[in-house]
Amino acid sequence: MVEVFALGLLRGTTLVLVLATFLMLGSIASQGARVISWEFLTTEPVEGMTHGGIFPAVFGTLCITLLMILMALPLGVCAAIYMVEYAGGSKMARIIRASVNNLAGVPSIVFGLFGVGFFVLFLGRSLDRVRGTGLLFGQPAMLWAAATLAVLVLPVIIVNTAEALNAVPRSHREASFALGATRWQTVRRVVLPQARSGILTGSILSISRGAGETAPILFTGCAYFLPRLPLVSLRVPFTGLSIPMINPLDQFMELSYHIFIMATQSTDAAITRPIQYGTTLVLVGLTFLLNLGAILLRIRYRQSIESA
Amino acid sequence: MGEQFVELILKLNGFVAIAAIGLIFVFLFKEGVQAFRTIPASHFIQTTEMDFDNTPQTVRMWQPVGTNPKYSLLPLFCGSMLVALPATLLATLFGVASGIYLAEVAGKRTREVVKPAIELVAGIPSVVIGFFCLAVLASLVQTAFQTTFRLNAVVGAIGVAFVIIPVIATMTDDALRAVPTHLREGAHALGANRWETIVRVVLPAGASGVTASILLGMGRALGETMIALMATGNAAQITANPFASVRTMTATIAAELGAVPQGGEQYRALFLVGSLLFSLTFLINLFAEIAVARMRKRLAL
Amino acid sequence: MKGTAIRLGALTLLLGITPPGSWVLAGDTITVKGSDTMVILGQRWAEEYMKQHADVTIQVTGGGSGTGIAALINGTTQLANSSRPIKEEERAAAKKNGIEVVEFKTALDGLAVVVNSANPVNELTMAQVGKIYSGYINDWKQVGGTGKRILRYSRESNSGTYVFFKEHVLLNRDFAADCQTMPGTSAVAEAVAKDPNGIGYGGVAYFSGNPQLKVLKIRKEAKTEAVSPTDKDGRPNYEAVWSGSYPIARYLYVYSAGQPREAVKTYLDWILGPEGQAIVEKIDYIPVKSTGAGTSR
Residue C181: its chain B contacts at CB < 8 A? Predict the structure, then answer.
């Protein structure tokens, strides 16, 4: 009797949780779907951001996550390779692992403080002093916001890569060594190819995490309103051609920050509520798809490892 | 030839996590400690001020802008606790229950659907949950509990619980699944039913893991920023009423840092709040790690 | 794998090391930072101006007057919007960084005190408003309303509105601890609209036109006439603000780092000219009276 009741309670609690989630996402989806259109995604906000679309925010989000992953991925993957393949079970590996765990637990707003204190004021201002170009690097910019996010997602990449590396059977490495391959050759030719999907999972998860974070970029580069895209034309030497590219020293608009300011600081929060729901739906949709992809990928490679 | 070079490069990268945590520590405390240069330490607790009729009055307030700035950390700490504790409580109930359900009750099919679903919840950006709390949940809570303040600690706590339930649920699930099957079989053989096995055998064996998950959840709750900023009403008051508006440490930093001149008194005070927050979560995470290590040891025996 | 790594690395280097000389910006860029009160205004100005001058980009960021002035001091913005005058120490701090701050009065703003439209209270004295916000009056009954606890909505301490209110209405007393601080005036408007016992303050522009809000008349002294910052149609009451009979009004400033030159100068001239001032009126602020009659405090 007790058993039936207790197990029912466990089941019920889980059900309530799942239902609550669906209700929340459902209400966001139904309200947001009314405003989302191709035009909403591809036009700029107008009339004091009470009308128009969210294109600069979408574009800014894409830019910053791209820049972030460019910085975090090489660092994180190399760190994980060192930790798993070189440091092994040594004290060094334990210290690295402890640092990674701690880094994962640091509150996101503390990353924001760190971004201002270290990247903008220390690194940026020092660069300016060395170059003597006046104030260029020492101010909030996409570069610093992306760097701050990169530190934030580092644990995600390291943990996922390490898990994937650990999953590669020991025997494969031993076989490679027996054939006379060096450690790096083994890592490059044997281990990494098998760990590829794990690394990919980590990257996708960290992109989704980075796209959704607001607190670390509040002071490191977000703009309330920036009518032009953070682009710059780069002159190709000798050809006279110029190609547009992301300007990492520019500020940018971003989806999650856009939701925050629209919900709390826009001209008229009640009138812009549809825009808020629309922006929220875009952000949720983006992170949802990324996460779903990562989860499916992980299920697949875990299965393939188990079956191997 | 390149072998040693490659190893060196990898090794340098290996230190990146250590370097990151070290730099965060240094750059946070470097600024935070300087707050003590201009603000007497006791002012972070309370200040004394003359009232209208010239009677001295003890003030415990966070009001950094004004002719006589006040930097008491008590209201902020109180606010953080009033959000984090109910959130952890709520998330423990739901998270541990779902964790047990996933590990011990659910069939393989259900599990394969529910677990990824919970992981997906973990991926919802906190600003989205904050927005939902602000726009929808706050009114629901106000109607249901007839609260004076529309935005209050409980609204924030429910939102924060949403963020940490997946953490607790997945970690509880992992911890319980790490409990060896033969323990369960033994219990069944002795005539225990499923519920008795869970309560008497599996939970005690996985207790450290479950504790660790709750601690980690609490660390996340203390550090959650956007939900606290958007849904708690932001009134820096000392109160024990969970339905009152409060201001957390995280929300204070987020709301005020962008607006203060670098190197000023308030700037440093905010870094001090950050240092305090960092230390608190660091300690909580440390305890969680000790709990995990203990569990590994016990299960290995 | 290695190839990818090299390509990624090269791209990172490219982004990080390209000499800034080769980053050709399209036309002039003006950065404006500061007051949330003025974000709507600053944005409309920017939007209109850019429509007419395609070669200029204006980047507007909010965050509060303190934010803007701090950015000016730190040299991270060219113009700062501020809803309060710059403080002497801020001017000095900027000077220390080699920046001479120049002030422009660009508009006037009447600060309205609002309650929910269901609240029977229609007017308050300055002293009553001050006492409500500093926590000495806690019940609507004390000011002629029904016996309900007063719920105070205020702004973040980084906003010029907050500082102005603290100095001129609270007379430098502290805000009551249970004041809920909102990140923007629109959040104040929304909260009071939903809260029958709430009271809020902020630029008139944010409250006019919301049927759930009631803008209170304010008496300067207990015996002077109660004056509303809005006229019958909810438009700002220019005369009351210009003459100073409505006591809670302030200038909205734009500060520039150094004497404005070139693109910045043209922009500022445009703001102070008829086109810029027309936008001021369009979004319910009060234009600067060019005869200089309009100081209210």
Answer: 234-236, 247, 255
Neighbours of B87 (CB within 10 A): 30
Query: Residues in chain B with pLDDT < 70?
Result: 1, 51-53, 259, 300-301
Residues in chain A: 308
ipTM value, please give it.
0.92
Whether A50 is covered by a domain: the verdict is no
What is the spatial distance between Cα B113 and Cα A72, in angstroms, rounded to a whole number? 31
In a domain, A45, yes or no: no
Tell me how many residue pairs between chain A and chain B have CB atoms under 8 A apart: 252
* A163 inside domain: yes
- Read off the CATH number of the domain in which A67 is found: 1.10.3720.10
The CA dihedral of A249, A247, C58, B261, to the nearest 10 degrees, is: -10
- Residue numbers in B near A165 (CB within 8 A): none
Instruction: Parse chain B into domains and list their residue ranges.
Output: 70-300
Question: Could A135 and C24 be called an inter-chain contact, meaning their C-beta atoms sit closer than 8 Å?
Answer: no
Interstrand relation of C56-61 and C28-34 (parallel, antiparallel or unpaired): parallel
Q: What is the pTM of this model?
A: 0.86
What is the domain count for chain A? 1
Q: What is the CATH number of domain B70-300?
A: 1.10.3720.10
Length of chain B: 301
User: What is the distance between the alpha carbons of residues B194 and B128, in angstroms, rounded to a whole number?
Assistant: 39
Supply B79's token pair: 């606010």
CA angle in degrees (0–180, nearest 5) for A78-A81-A84: 150
pLDDT in tens, A193-225: 888 888 888 889 888 989 899 999 988 888 777
**DSSP secondary structure letters along B82-123:** HHHHHHHHHHHHHHHHHHHIIIIIS-HHHHHHHHHHHHHHHT
- Domain residues for the domain of A105 are 55-223+282-307
Q: Is A70–C23 a contact, with Cβ atoms under 8 angstroms apart?
A: no
Q: What are the 10-residue block averages of pLDDT along chain C, 297 residues in total?
A: 49 42 53 80 87 84 78 86 88 88 90 93 93 93 90 86 88 90 83 91 83 91 86 81 86 90 89 91 79 35
Q: Which chains touch C (3+ CB pairs under 8 A)?
A: A, B
| Domain presence at residue A234 | no
pLDDT per residue as tens digits for the range A16-44:
988 998 899 999 999 999 989 888 888 88
Do residue A234 and residue C18 have CB atoms under 8 angstroms apart?
yes
* Interchain proximity A266–C184, CB inside 8 Å: yes
Q: Which residues, listed in sequence order, are joined to residue C24 by a DSSP beta bridge?
A: A233
- Quick one: pLDDT at residue B202? 92
Q: In the complex, which subunits touch B with 3 or more CB pairs below 8 angstroms?
A: A, C
